[in-house]
Amino acid sequence: MATFLATATISIIFLTSIPIAQATSKPVIFAFGDSLSDVGNNNHLPYSLARSDYPWYGIDYSGGHATGRFTNGRTIGDIIAAKLGVPSPPPYLSLSMDDDAILEGVNYASGGAGILNETGIYFVQKLSFDDQISCFETTATTITRKIGKVASRRLRSEAFFFIGLGSNDYINNFLQPNLPDGQIYTLPQFEDLLIGTLENQLRRLHKLGARKVIFHGLAPMGCIPSQRAQAIDGKCVEHVNDYVLQFNSRVKALLTELNLKLPGAQMAFADCYDIVLDLIDNPKRYGFKIAHTSCCNVDTTVGGLCLPNSRLCGDRKDYVFWDAYHPTDAANEVIADTLFADSDVGQVHPALGMAPSPSPSPSPL
What we know:
Strands 1, 2, 3, 4, 5 and 6 form a six-stranded mixed sheet that branches. The protein is α/β, with parallel strands linked by helices. The two termini are 21 Å apart. It has helices at 76-83, 129-147, 149-157, 167-174, 181-184, 187-207, 225-228, 238-261, 273-281, 329-340, 343-346; strands at residues 10-15, 26-33, 105-107, 160-164, 212-216, 266-270, 290-294, 319-321. The protein has one domain (10-271): Rossmann fold, CATH 3.40.50. 51% of the residues are buried. Helices cover 33% and strands 11% of the residues. The protein is built from eleven helices and eight strands. Strand 2, helix 1 and strand 3 (105-107) form a beta-alpha-beta unit. InterPro entries: GDSL, GDSL_esterase/lipase, SGNH_hydro_sf, SGNH_plant_lipase-like. It is found in: Secreted.
């Protein structure tokens, strides 16, 4: 269950149906990340404690039922997919590799996931970023079998991956007093571990053919309800926000370095920190009323998920946060609009970096 800052990961690949002549006809999305972008993978992990397959999750999604998304409606990835004119891809664990649906996009994201394999260990089951890359490797092998080496290589080289991970590595790892990483490492050592691990993971993706990568940076984690609940004054925890800013800065520098070192790499950093902070500090500017607590009236000191016996707010569109960690559908739309219009992201592909378009209705699974 990452915080909403845990950015959603979406990778968009220009894939075809089986006829090679139709390559690049439409974007196909491959999503990597945590609970911000999980669309149901954890539902297929029987022992996972990071789940959202119960009411009230999905109440504002098409059909009004829980799908495994950690929000009341759409994820950021769902909204960006709709803006690109394609359906939101289904969870990897719901698919058979014999299914041609893998040619139309797959979501690998898993609630509780982190850059580090040990992150989220108390959720019992989840797909870490390394696990997700392995799942993509299986998918890529199957795509090659279906359409051939040349076409598959071309498709992967035209792909761009939108990756959003890191918040769980802090919220559900380093900042937890009973977990070892926070005791073993100093903050600078932990940052080095995160960035070094991420570099190896991005290099691995590059070897698998990824060239166009978008990494969605972290938002101000110190301002989410679960962190505010730990502050005596109920305000943002500023030292946590400082961690975020340092992490974002180092990831951006890493992407610049990899662009220089890896052949054909076009890696961009999508920065949502300022827009999310402004959402929190000035909610009325965006049509919201409340940003310091969640719509689902959860006890943010214990768990923080919206359980079936939780009491909902009167108007979900008034709130920036859905539960103690994740944004509402309405807040996701504001964030997605900003990322879609990001000029840095637009350098990776011209479909992005454009003025926000009207948001279409959510696509059903």
